[in-house]
Amino acid sequence: MPDRRIYRATSGTVSMIVAGAVAVFLLGDALVRGGLGQTMLLAPWVLLIVWVVYAVVYEPRVETDAEGITVVNILRRSTVPWGRVADIGTRWQLVVHLDDDSRVRAFGGPSLRPPRRRPFSRDGEADAARFSDAELILQQWEDAREAGKTGGTVQSQWNGVALGTFAALALWAGIAVFIVSTAA
Question: How far is Cα 84 from Cα 69, in angstroms, rounded to an integer?
Fold first, then answer.
């Protein structure tokens, strides 16, 4: 089994590509019709919409490795060592139950869908892609428990990339509003 895996909804990737293509089209059209100045005033608004798609649909994901599970939500990132995981459940979303009765909910990542069907590999072992993402995460957790992983510190922090990008776009939008209001 691979050491590090990233689980993200396919719809998130498709949505991000579509949003990026629409943004390029709109900004290209603004550049051709209105020039660079008008495009720079319009750009933060178009890019804010792309940021919403990024932060809400694309960025949420679940990452696993030999050490633990990382849940990246819209504005927060939580890293949980396997030794602190008491249970992993799914209903509408993946929920990591910790040994102190707290929970970390994943707003993106594995969904409840039937397993993908793939043929067996040459050595007769079932291909890992044949199982659902939630089953693969459960298997990594079981492997860590069998290896005797214990304890560790749960780390939760702000999602700096999403918040930093939003702050820059908000500043740019504020400057655009100021320029337009002083020009009128």
Answer: 10
Q: From CA 148, how far away is CA 102, in angstroms rounded? A: 22
pLDDT, one tens digit per residue, over 85-144 is: 999 988 778 899 999 999 999 987 775 554 455 444 455 555 555 567 888 888 888 888
Q: Token pair of 131, please?
A: 């199982």
Amino acid sitting at position 132 = S
Strands 68-72 and 76-81: antiparallel
Per the listing, tokens 């051709």 go with 32
Q: Which residues contact 99 (CB under 8 A, 6 or more apart)?
A: 84, 85, 86
For 94, the 3-state DSSP assignment is strand
CA 59 to chain centre: 3
Burial of 88 (0-12, 13-18, 19+ CB in 10 A): buried
* DSSP annotation string for 4-31: -EEE--HHHHHHHHHHHHHHHHHHHHHH
